[in-house]
Amino acid sequence: MTDNVKPMPDPAWHERLFSTWLLIAVIIACLYVTEFKPWALVDETSLRAARQFLSSFFPPAHDAEFLKLIVVSTWQTIAVATAGVTIALIFAVPLALIATRTLSISRIGNPRVARIPNFIRNATRGVLIVLRSVPELAWGLLFVRAIGLGDTAGVLAIALTYCGMMGKVFLEIMESQDARSADALLINGASRSQTFLYATLPSCLPEMVSYTVFRWECAIRSSVILGFVGAGGLGQQMDLSMRMLAGGQVATMLIAFVALVWLADVVSKQLRALLD
């Protein structure tokens, strides 16, 4: 009897097939628009240029004066990332508190009275959208033009973009929590800050700290990229060496960059382990 049982047809196979072909068409269109030509990598001209460029990497620069410069630039990169994330955190938490509905006293009262708080929340969400919509590289270019070359431009660029990102994620973390304990405190006369400290923060803190550590790790990579537009750190030194066609120096800085990212990954894992 079981051999004669026919499998039931999939009622959604038409939709899945259409979605698959639509996705393939979109990918092909994107490759066409971007003029994606991977075969150019194996072109004789490209291979010759790549061999000449890579051959200049050996041996990596290792004189004492240059290594001292690398250590200073690496420390500047870490400092830019840490300062930028710290400033972003200082502003992201208050903005998330203003934008969240979970801690709103007005939402449990008269809806007409809640119009002004709703406007403030929506305006704050708009600010977060603007901040995270502009990449840190664009902010870096603007600040380099405004205040000149240096680490300050990198710190401000990371602070603005990461403030928008962290504020948005903190907002979602707060609103994803069970609101019953927060509602109980608000109904009994607790303020927004008291409700946040005693009801929301204890359940949100591990996720918020974990995301902050992750953003710090990303900021180290961003600070290197910002150096290419003159925002200081290891990236700026690498850009100067590449302009001078000093392949050995570039190789040493690439090694330092890989070691820096590896160290940031180790530190972030240790910090996350402390939260578990």
Give me the CATH superfamily.
Answer: MetI-like
CATH topology-level name:
MetI-like fold
Succession of helices and strands: HHHHHHHHHH
Q: Radius of gyration in whole Å, from Cα? A: 26 Å
How many strands, what sense, and barrel or not for the largest sheet? none
Give the helix level as a range of percent.
Answer: over 70%
Number of β-strand runs = 0
CATH class: Mainly Alpha
Q: How many domains would you count in the coordinates?
A: 1
Please state roughly what percent of the residues sit in beta strands, choosing from under 5%, 5-15%, 15-25%, 25-35%, 35-45% or over 45%.
under 5%
CATH-derived architecture: Orthogonal Bundle
What is the count of helical runs? 10
Ends distance: 54 Å
Structural class: mainly alpha
Low-confidence stretches: none
Indicate the overall shape: globular
Average pLDDT score: 80
Structure, described:
The chain has 276 residues and is mainly α. It has one domain (64-275): MetI-like (MetI-like fold, Orthogonal Bundle). The chain contains ten helices and no strands. Helix 3 (64-99) runs antiparallel to helix 8, helix 3 (64-99) packs across helix 9 and helix 8 runs parallel beside helix 9. The radius of gyration is 26 Å and the shape is globular. The model has no long low-confidence stretch (mean pLDDT 80).
Notable traits:
mainly alpha, 276 residues, MetI-like fold, 75% helix
Brief description of this entry?
By secondary structure, the chain is mainly alpha-helical. 75% of the residues lie in helices and 0% in strands. The longest helix is centred in the N-terminal third of the chain and has 36 residues.
